[in-house]
Write a structure and sequence with these properties.
The structure is a homodimer. Chain A is of the alpha+beta class. Helix content of chain A is 36%, strand content 28%. Chain A contains ten helices and twelve strands. In chain A, strand 9 and strand 10 form a beta hairpin.
Chain lengths: 306, 306
C-alpha cells in the first residue's frame, strides 16, 4: 500500500451539556486527504486545496500531528500528504481537528497500523495545539472514532466511546462569520456558580443515560447549557431565533457547535431533521449573512479509507 | 390491609462525582416503620423508638411527607405511624430521607397505591424540607427506588433510575461525630473554577457510562471529587487515612457519603468489600472515635414491605 485516500469527518463538540468533554461525529461534510509513501524520510505536505494553510510541516496542524506519530516508528520511507479542505476553518465543526485526526489516521495506515484508533487520539491532540494553543480531544476523538465520545479525563487520557442511537440525526447551520477562538474564550468566566455546575452535571448525566437507553427525549431534555451558551450566543447573530425555529419543529435540542459560529440541532429521524433544517434556514434567510446547512446521521465510523 | 410494616433503607448520596444529583441505595441498615389505619382521619405518629424526634406531625419529617401524600386522596380513615429508627440522625447515610421516603411509601400502600414509586419522590421531598430546609431528592429517590438514581433536574423533577452492576458492593464507615449540615454547607464556595466543573462533569459522565456498561474500573476511575471533598474532608477526622486504606485494598473509589461524616467505598465483589471494610476499620481503630461499619450489596429494591 503506497497511496491511500481518507475521509476525515466534521464533528460537533460540547453539545450544550458537555463543555470540553463531549462530542459527536457527523457525515456528509469532511476533509479528504491523500497519503503517499516517498523515498525521502519525513513528513511533507505537498498539496493543499480550498484553504490558505502553511505547507511547512511544523506549522501545519496536519503536519505536526502526522509527525508525532511518524516519529514513533523507525521506517525507511517518508510520507507526502495532500489536504483537500472541505470544512471551513473557524466554522465550529472541527476543521482543525479533522486535519489532525485525518493526518494521524492516514499516517497510521501507511505505517502498517501500529496504533488503534483510540491510541491515535493522543497524537492528533498534538496537532490541535497548533490550532488552539492547547491539547484537547473533544473534536479529534469523535472525528477518529465516530459516534459520541466522552473525555472522562486527561490525566491520563480516558476516552469513552458511546454508540449513537440509530435514528439520531444532526442539523448544522454554519453562518459565514468569524468567531475568533480568543473571543469565544474571553467571554467565559473562570469561575461559575456551584449551582450552575450542578445543573450542567445533571444534564450531562441525563444525556449519557439517554444515549445508553436510546431515550431520545431524555437526550433532548438534557441538551441544556446554563454555563457557556448564555455567554457565547451573543457572538452569533440571530442565535436565539434559529434555536427557537429548531425547537418549534421538534428538534430534541439545539445549541452552539464547538466555539461557534455553527449552530447544531439533534433530531429523532431524518424527516424531522430535514424539516428542522428548513426552518433553521428560513430563520436565517433575512439575516444578511450567508450560510450553509447540513443534515447528517450521526456518523458511526469516524475517519475512514475512501 | 389495615396494618403494614416496611423497611426504608439507608442511602449514599453524592458519590464523589455527583454532588446533589447522584445517589444509591444500600441494604442491611434501614428504618422500620409500621402503618395502621385508624378511624380518626389524619396522620398521627404514635411511637418512635431509638431517636429523639417530635411526635407532632407537622414537625416530623415522616409526618410532613406522609401528610403530603395523604391529603391528595379523599379517604374516610386516618393513618397511625410507628417509627423504629435504625439509621442515626446526622450520619450522612440518608437518615431523614429514610423517614420521608418510608412514610410516603407506607401511606401509599394503605391508600391503595395511587402513585408509582417514582411519583412518590416529590412527596418525600416535602419531608426533606423539615430536615434540611430545602427540597432535594438525591437521597429520597434511591431510598424509594433502589439501585442508583440520577436527578437530571428539578424543574420539572426528572429522575433517572440506573440498575447497579450485580457485583457492586458498598462499605460505609460511620464515625460517631456530628457534622452539622450548616457547617458542611458553609465550607463550600458558591463559585467554583470552570475547569473543576469540567473535570467533575467528565467524571460524572464516566460513572454513568460505567454503570450502563458494567465497567467497574471506569466507575472507579470516575469516583473523584475535585469540588466538595477537598473542602469538607477536614470536618471528618482521619478521612485521608481511611480513604488511603480503602484504595490500598482495591476499593474502586472512596469518598464522603452525603454531607458526612460517614465515609463510603465502592468495591467489586463482596469479598473485596469485606477486606476493604476490615482495613478501613483498622485505619480508624486508634482515632478515639467510636464508629460502625456496614458492608452491603447495592440494594435493587428500595423501600419495601416486610
Amino acid at each position: 500500500m503506497n497511496e491511500i485516500k481518507i475521509f476525515a469527518p466534521a464533528t460537533i463538540a460540547n453539545l450544550n451539556c458537555g463543555f470540553d468533554i463531549l462530542g459527536c461525529c457527523i457525515d456528509g461534510i469532511g476533509d479528504e486527504m491523500i497519503f503517499r509513501k516517498s523515498t525521502e524520510k519525513g513528513i511533507r505536505i505537498t498539496k493543499i486545496t480550498d484553504a490558505d494553510l502553511p505547507y511547512e510541516t511544523s506549522k501545519n496542524v496536519a503536519g505536526v500531528a502526522a509527525l508525532a506519530i511518524y516519529e514513533t516508528q523507525n521506517v525507511n520511507f517518508g510520507i507526502e500528504i495532500e489536504i483537500h479542505k472541505k470544512i471551513k476553518a473557524g466554522s465550529g465543526i472541527g476543521s482543525s481537528s479533522a486535519s489532525a485526526a485525518g493526518a494521524v489516521f492516514g499516517v497510521n495506515e501507511l505505517l502498517g497500523k501500529p496504533f488503534s484508533k483510540k491510541e491515535l487520539v493522543a497524537f492528533a491532540m498534538k496537532g490541535e495545539v497548533i490550532a488552539s494553543g492547547s491539547e484537547h480531544a473533544d473534536n479529534v476523538a469523535p472525528c477518529l472514532l465516530g459516534n459520541f465520545t466522552l473525555i472522562r479525563g486527561y490525566n491520563p487520557l480516558d476516552i469513552i466511546e458511546i454508540k449513537s442511537p440509530d435514528d439520531l440525526f444532526a442539523v448544522v447551520l454554519h453562518p459565514h462569520i468569524e468567531v475568533k477562538t480568543a473571543d469565544a474564550r474571553a467571554v467565559l468566566s473562570k469561575e461559575i456558580p456551584l449551582k450552575d455546575a450542578i445543573t450542567q452535571t445533571g444534564n450531562l448525566g441525563g444525556f449519557i443515560a439517554g444515549l445508553y437507553t436510546n431515550d431520545y427525549y431524555l437526550m433532548g431534555r438534557s441538551l441544556q447549557d446554563v454555563i457557556v451558551e448564555p455567554k457565547r450566543k451573543h457572538l452569533i447573530p440571530h442565535f436565539d431565533k434559529v434555536k427557537a425555529a429548531a425547537l418549534e419543529h421538534d428538534a430534541l435540542g439545539c445549541g452552539i457547535s464547538g466555539a461557534g459560529p455553527s449552530i447544531f440541532a439533534l433530531c429523532k429521524s431524518k424527516s424531522t431533521a430535514e424539516i428542522v433544517a428548513e426552518n433553521m434556514k428560513n430563520a436565517y434567510e433575512n439575516s444578511g449573512i450567508s450560510f450553509d446547512t447540513y443534515v447528517s446521521k450521526i456518523n458511526p465510523d469516524g475517519c475512514k479509507l475512501i
